[in-house]
Hints:
It is a single chain. With 217 residues, the chain is an alpha+beta fold. It has one domain (11-212): Lambda Exonuclease, Chain A (Alpha-Beta Complex). The chain is 35% helix and 27% strand. The chain has helices spanning 31-35, 41-49, 57-73, 84-92, 147-152, 157-170, 196-212; strands at residues 11-14, 19-22, 25-26, 29-30, 99-110, 115-125, 136-143, 178-185, 188-194. The strands form two sheets. Strands 4, 5, 6, 7, 8 and 9 form a six-stranded mixed sheet that branches. Helix 3 (57-73) packs parallel to helix 4 and helix 6 packs across helix 7 (196-212). The mean pLDDT is 94.
Amino acid sequence: MVEPLQEITGLSFHEDLHRYRLRGEWLAQSVSSVIGFDMHPRQRARIDETKDGPDGWALRGNTLHAWHEGFLKGSEPAIEDRWTPWLNPLRSEPLFSDFELLAVEFRLCDAKRSVGGSFDFLIRLRSDEPEKDWPIVLGDLKTVSSRAAVGSRKPATAQLGAYLSMMQQHYPRLWISECVTVVAGPERCRVIRQTPDACAAAWEDAWGRFECIQPDF
């Protein structure tokens, strides 16, 4: 039997600062800051422009992530009807038809690299195989504004690789079978499946590029 994950002792997330703290010390980076360090200024400006307001990605993402967390826990929170087109495809997604929840919105860290991050869900899929062979899936939920954008949204490959690396440090006996990016849009949901090895390689590549531009002291 696989037990739900126990929180990492001394690790906390400060949402107002979007920073992680481990045993009283601030971690220098988040997973998102490492992956996005070399983003083109035009792309970063576009992200900032579309963040706020009733149709911004921040409200959409926060609302749907909170709903999805409740959904995985078996108790959907009530939200505005305007979000219903996003909810129905997630409800009917086969990935979430029969599973055990191991963790949701879970905080992780790499103390050596001074990086913190939070994955969206870790589930164990029930199947006809012996219970010891049930696959464990690490996932990240991405929300988009349109049905068309569901098809063009890229997977969170390096991001998932970062979480996988941190999981191996803190929970080395837990074997993750697959990494998935769940892209949710109005009236459409797409699950992008990737191997843990591909995600781990993408994270190491991202970290290597980030580390190269850090100053020597």
